[in-house]
Prior knowledge:
With 91 residues, the protein is an all-alpha fold. It has helices at residues 2-21, 26-62, 65-75.
Amino acid sequence: MRWPVLILLLLMLALQYPLWFGKGGWFRVWEAERQLTEQQALNHKLEQRNAGLDAEIRDLKTGTEAIEERARFELGLTKPDEIFVQVPQKR
């Protein structure tokens, strides 16, 4: 009676192997879900960045305020009869 139980136990373990370690096994599914979660978080960050860049592009195309701001801070330009004063920050 001991041999049939042992044979059935081994057969059950042999059938369980593909479920846990096979091509579509649980361990690979868990790893794929983890990678998917990481990729979704990265995509969310990139979507937010793209939305900000899109808003800046639209502002540059339609409005003059963004262009004026960039000209002031990046190029140091001023309007006629305007005095530019820069206050250094303490470090």
